[in-house]
Amino acid sequence: MTKTTRLQKYLDRNGIKYDIIPHRPTSTSLESAQTVHINGKFVAKSVILEDHLGYLMAVVPASEHVAIERLNAILDRNMDLTPENELTELFTDCEPGAIPPIGPAYGIQSIIDEDLLHCSDIYFEAGNHRDLIHVRGKDFTQLMEGAPHSRIAMH
User: Fold this and answer.
1) Are 104 and 119 in contact (CB under 8 A)?
2) How many helices (H) does the chain have, and how many strands (E)?
């Protein structure tokens, strides 16, 4: 069992109970979901965007993509995907492509797709490509308290 130090501290500080679900190494959150036989709509993934105002973590179901144009219109911003080399500097305790979708743990502003707020259980990458973390939906919402939500995902 491995998870990021910042993530573990954030979960513990917030009194969140969680399970670690190990799986074979995968390269995407959706592949992780499929490997452990979980519907991708219950797996939250992070997409890091940026513009002149800074970084933003968009959190969407693993089975979806961020609708960047829609998100830019909602927030009145002009964001684009953050280059991979910047992500390794921001998330030093995570493997590339396995960033947990808990922006507050990293001090990064977040926005959540509304569909994730209606899930009884949420799963997400633990900062590596071998473990998923499982939390109750209400605990995930607590972890993301204060983050705005909207329909930001598309299939």
Assistant:
1) no
2) 5, 10
109 CB-contact burial (10 Å; exposed 0-12 / middle 13-18 / buried 19+): middle
Rounded to an integer, what distance in angstroms lies between the CA atom of residue 86 and that of residue 84? 5
- CATH code at 5-154: 3.90.960.10
Phi, psi (deg, nearest 5) at residue 100: -60, 145
Coil/strand/helix, residue 100: coil
Which residue type is seen at 35?
T
Q: Which pLDDT tens digit goes with each residue over 37-94?
A: 999 999 999 999 999 999 999 999 999 999 999 999 999 999 999 998 899 989 999 9
**Where exactly are the structural domains of the chain?**
5-154
pTM over 0.85: yes
* Ramachandran region, residue 37 (left: φ > 0; alpha: ψ -120 to 50; beta: rest): left
Pairing of strands 149-150, 131-136: unpaired
Rounded-to-integer distance, Cα 11 and Cα 21, Å: 16
